[in-house]
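thread from #wetlab-drylab

HS: before we spend reagent money on co-crystallization trials with glyceraldehyde-3-phosphate, can we at least see a predicted complex? here's what I'd submit
DV: go for it
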Amino acid sequence: MESLSDILKRARTEGWAVGHFNASNLEQMRVICRVCRDLKSPAMIGTSEGERDHMGLAEAVALRSALRHEFGIPVFLNADHSKSVETAKAAVDAGYDSVHIDLSAKPFAENLAGTKEVVIYARAKNAGVVVEGELGYLRGESKLQKEKIEIKPEDLTDPDQAEHFVAETGVDRLAPAVGNSHGIALDEPALDIERIRAVRARVPESVALVLHGGSGIPEDQIKAAIAAGIANIHVNTELRVAFVRGLRQDLSEHPDETTPYKLYREAEQTMAKVIEEKLKLFGAMDRI
Ligand code: G3H
Ligand code: ZN
């Protein structure tokens, strides 16, 4: 199976982005894999700390392996937004393919030291595990925002600092703050495309740039971000909204239904539609 790093490198040179989709149960993981298989895209599944606490680390890893086997496509599991060295290490130990160590809310020196510690740990434990670091401050959570999010200039990633951070930590992927935020914002996001280009120019080609907060970003901005050097895009809120909307619809249309698995049909379909749209927008079809 082609490695995640090789696929990201290919995405960069071919001008597309690998979709990273969050999940917190079997149904969602399977929908992601099914759509990816149908569209011939690699599948990258993310679990935040909350999502993997819900599923269980070992369970998520076992499902990843089972789905990889069942669907016959590259399926990678990422420990998204690990907020401490400990939770990142626990994901490496459990058999995750990738960990995202996110110490971006901490002072620069602490972020750098903690991220480096995770890279060293992951390499020693399993040479195949890849590590993503984050620099700059990303506001918001993966939900429909009720208040306006104000992105401050000091939140944004400084390209010089990014160069230093990547060289010192040895991360495989870097998530910069470039005008993006988590969740679906009230006002239209405005990505700083020039900053993406500047960061891209300062870090080695082998390091993939990741765009977080992929929900609610207009199509033209996504395309411009990919052209500027983004090779990996995270989407969560739009999937959550689609899934819960579908679930609510099934629950209200079938008030007497008590067989749990029969209540996921609409949720799976609405979520699949979002994944399909995103993969097409990212140019990720027919890539495997
Ligand atoms: O890590 C997860 C993503 O950055 C999701 O962001 O909820 O805005 O799509 P989103
Ligand atoms: Zn994120």
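DV: The mean pLDDT is 97.
HS: ok that's useful, forwarding to the group
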